[in-house]
């Protein structure tokens, strides 16, 4: 009596179907990994540009809070894009603020100048550079009599020279700056609203981040109303 042997193994059709299913699963895994990598890169780019924008606006707001509106000088184009912004600062090497005994005003210790300058490493973006200036001969009212006055436009132009050497009076505050805008100037409230936009390239295109901040210049001579 012959015993019928059980056929072990897969038919050709079963093998083809198995290979097709495996290929489909591998393709799906590849797509998921590619998507995850893209999201990670986009998030990283947003994080970098977002940090630069936030850092820029924080520096500006911190400095502007201690100034007087009477000393504010903003050089901007017809679209309200800021090229430079300068004002008196009541803080020097330390963060301590001093006031005069004769007048209820701050002791001015420096002019602070922020300006944007083309980034040599990224032609479409700008660097945000912060400079300080002290000259009690030219600016006797500000530094001797402590009366707020703006920086002269000629000095602003001379200082916006693209010097990238880091010193105590010259530093790069942020990179990847795309635009710095003045959104509002409220002289009655001694306040202004600024917006910083940053841009960075990624594999999926340009990634932009923006931050807006409103600041009141607390050492203004004129009281807000």
Written account of the structure:
It is a single chain. With 225 residues, the chain is an alpha+beta fold. It has one domain. It is built from 3 helices and 7 strands. A 7-stranded antiparallel sheet has the order 1-2-3-4-5-6-7, with helices on both faces. About 9% of the residues have low confidence.
Sum up the overall morphology in one term: elongated
Helix content: 25-40%
Major sheet size, sense and barrel closure: 7 strands, antiparallel
Number of helices in the DSSP assignment:
3
The number of strands is 7
Radius of gyration: 29 Å
List unreliable stretches of 5+ residues: 29-48
Distance N terminus to C terminus? 113 Å
H/E element string? HEEEEHHEEE
The total number of structural domains is 1
Strand content: 25-35%
Average pLDDT number: 80
Structural class designation = alpha+beta
Strand order of the largest sheet: 1-2-3-4-5-6-7
Secondary structure elements and their pairing?
Blueprint: H1 12-65, E1 73-76, E2 82-89, E3 110-119, E4 122-133, H2 140-143, H3 153-159, E5 170-186, E6 191-202, E7 205-216
Antiparallel strand pairs: 1-2, 2-3, 3-4, 4-5, 5-6, 6-7
Task: Summarize the structure in short.
The protein is 29% helix and 33% strand. The chain contains 3 helices and 7 strands, in the order αββββααβββ. Strands 1-2-3-4-5-6-7 form a 7-stranded antiparallel sheet, sandwiched between helices.
């Amino acid at each position: 009596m012959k015993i019928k042997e059980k056929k072990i193994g897969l038919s050709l059709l079963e093998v083809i179907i198995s290979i097709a299913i495996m290929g489909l699963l591998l393709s799906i895994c590849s797509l998921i990994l590619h998507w995850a990598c893209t999201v990670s890169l986009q998030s990283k780019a947003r994080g970098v540009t977002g940090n630069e924008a936030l850092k820029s606006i924080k520096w500006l707001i911190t400095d502007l809070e201690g100034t007087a509106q009477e000393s504010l000088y903003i050089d901007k184009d017809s679209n309200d894009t800021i090229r430079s912004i300068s004002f008196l600062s009541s803080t020097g090497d330390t963060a301590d603020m001093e006031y005069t005994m004769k007048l209820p005003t701050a002791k001015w210790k420096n002019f602070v100048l922020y300006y944007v300058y083309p980034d040599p490493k990224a032609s479409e973006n700008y660097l945000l550079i912060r400079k300080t200036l002290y000259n009690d001969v030219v600016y006797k009212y500000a530094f001797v009599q402590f009366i707020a006055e703006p920086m002269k436009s000629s000095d602003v132009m001379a200082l916006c020279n693209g010097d990238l050497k880091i010193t105590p009076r010259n530093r790069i505050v942020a990179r990847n700056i795309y635009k710095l805008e003045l959104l509002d100037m409220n002289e009655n409230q001694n306040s202004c609203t600024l917006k910083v936009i940053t841009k960075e390239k990624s594999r999926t295109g340009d990634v932009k981040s923006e931050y807006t901040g409103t600041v009141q210049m607390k050492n203004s001579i004129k009281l807000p109303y």
